[in-house]
Amino acid sequence: MSENENKKLNVNDNYCSILSAPFLSQKNCESIINHLVPDLWSQSELADGTINKEKRNAVKQLLPVSEKGWPLLDVISAAKQINDNRYKFDISGILETDGPVVMKYDVGGHYDWHIDVGKKVANRKLSFIIQLSDPTTYEGGDIEIMDAKIKTEVLRAQGNITFFPSFIPHKITKVTKGERLSIVGWIHGSTFI
């Protein structure tokens, strides 16, 4: 049994569309980081499949998942809980062909304003980001969500999971010192009509 199974997420009700809550322990974050494989990093592309480092400069690799499905099954459980209580979207889970990735932003790494849903990824309903890095180990690399008044410290907290609808514009500011690691993924469902 995973440590998050049947755990109720306590989210900040001051934010309507963006929900952020403690999710992974420091030890869990370090475990995921320790299971990353240096040779598996690849350049992140834009939603249309092209590479443009002016708009997006980061590398990625697939999220390592244990034989028991951790942490993926916990993420799915949390997403269902959040969706049932707040969003009420028609969701079905995570597509195998569009699974979560670990993103690494080194100095200069960033991702300009974008949305996570589009022609090639029309089934994305909810986006999530899980902060893996200790926020004291890097500078910059902040998550900004358009028109959201949310404290940066909340989104930077190690182990926090942040959910928001995939159609909301957001960006990652340039990392100016250190390295930022996070898990990024999407909960899928029938396309918005």
Summarize the structure in words.
With about 190 residues, this protein is an alpha+beta fold. The protein has a single domain (about 20-45, about 55-190), classed as Sandwich (Jelly Rolls). Helices cover about 15% and strands about 30% of the residues. It contains three helices and 13 strands, in the order E-H-E-E-E-H-E-E-E-E-E-H-E-E-E-E. The strands form three sheets. A seven-stranded antiparallel β-sheet has the order 1-10-7-13-5-4-2. It is globular, with a radius of gyration of 15 Å.
Key features of this structure:
193 residues, alpha+beta, Jelly Rolls, 7-stranded antiparallel beta sheet, 4-stranded antiparallel beta sheet, 3 helices, 30% strand, globular
Give the low-confidence spans.
none
What general form does the structure show? globular
What's the CATH class label?
Answer: Mainly Beta
**If strands are numbered along the chain, what order do they take across the biggest sheet?**
1-10-7-13-5-4-2
* Span of the ends, CA to CA: 38 Å
Q: Give the CATH superfamily.
A: q2cbj1_9rhob like domain
Return the average pLDDT rounded to an integer: 91
Give the ordered list of helices and strands.
Answer: EHEEEHEEEEEHEEEE
